[in-house]
Amino acid sequence: MALIFNTFTRVLEEKMRLLSITSVNCKRNKMYPIPRLRNPTWLTRKERAPIDEQLTSENREFLKEFVQDKITESTERAKTIVTNKIQWTPKMQRTGVIAKKIGVYPLWKKNGDMICTTLLQVMDNHVIRYYPPENYESPRQLRPRVYNKKGCLLLGAEIGDPSTFTKEYCGLFQDSGVLPTKFLARFFVSNDAALPLGTNITAKHFQVGNYVDVRGKTTDRGFQGVMKRHGFKGMPASHGVTKTHRRGGNIGGGGEKGRVWPGTKMPGHMGNRFRVARGLKIWRINTKYNVLYVSGRAIPGETNSIVYVFDTKLPLKKPMKELPFPTYFESENDEIFEEDLFDDEIHIFSSPSITYNEK
């Protein structure tokens, strides 16, 4: 009898324990939903293993000509794409572009001040896909509800050799009519800023005098000490200092709270992180080579690295004049641009610097 009672008691305790755990988990999932960690639809395996297909020189030349014809065809088709003109408002959000950081160049203002600018070359951007707000799902759904959802525009840049990509990756470009590209990027846009597939975006998408944000991956510097990573002064070279010239020193006291506080500046990995430089002014635009001259030298990334340029999010530096919305179309505009567009404050060296008043 005692054995049966003990068995019944253990079973009842186990059921109550499971019931309590289930109730706690339900409450936790309701208040703090578990994020859905999954890759986006365009994040597939890109490069495939190289295979020696034993092609003759004639076949290789034929494939090169075929790829070049496809590039020319897609470029000509992109010039003929038109869309409905929409009146731009400051609350609308346009797409960005994929650019390449190519160097630093000085410019001079009319008052004689020199400014350093970074050259960002806008690559051959093409619209690959568009996900409407109702169809796009974020890879990490941390919130159960998102207000004012925006569409997702997928851009590609720098057309590559299709034979080096996988079948799944090439399938992303099937509807756009563009050959597979080496780089992809997403930009959230308003509902009215959706672009037709295959649209080509150039440096004329921006205007001189406006402000942009640039997102890039910082230079990977590996494991560094506190002097290089955080700018510590270091210890003296002499006066009794022994083997602690470049060390960080004390990191905190002992006692009741004797532990390493989160965020303590210590040695570690430096760089290789995405950072955004906000509020950079466009001083000059070269329409022939699609180059943007933006202010500053601290744009994240190495030379020839890929960056993402889009309209600034800073409320005090948003453009007040009307922008080409959703982008600048060559077929709809007959305006002839000069090769170089300068801001009003920049001194143009081809113009005279000294003027005389005739009396």
From TrEMBL:
<feature type="region of interest" description="Disordered">
    <location>
        <begin position="234"/>
        <end position="264"/>
    </location>
</feature>
<dbReference type="InterPro" id="IPR019927">
    <property type="entry name" value="Ribosomal_uL3_bac/org-type"/>
</dbReference>
<dbReference type="InterPro" id="IPR000597">
    <property type="entry name" value="Ribosomal_uL3"/>
</dbReference>
<dbReference type="InterPro" id="IPR009000">
    <property type="entry name" value="Transl_B-barrel_sf"/>
</dbReference>
<dbReference type="GO" id="GO:1990904">
    <property type="term" value="C:ribonucleoprotein complex"/>
</dbReference>
<comment type="similarity">
    <text>Belongs to the universal ribosomal protein uL3 family.</text>
</comment>
<keyword id="KW-0689">Ribosomal protein</keyword>
<protein>
    <recommendedName>
        <fullName>Large ribosomal subunit protein uL3m</fullName>
    </recommendedName>
</protein>
<dbReference type="Pfam" id="PF00297">
    <property type="entry name" value="Ribosomal_L3"/>
</dbReference>
<dbReference type="GO" id="GO:0005840">
    <property type="term" value="C:ribosome"/>
</dbReference>
<keyword id="KW-0687">Ribonucleoprotein</keyword>
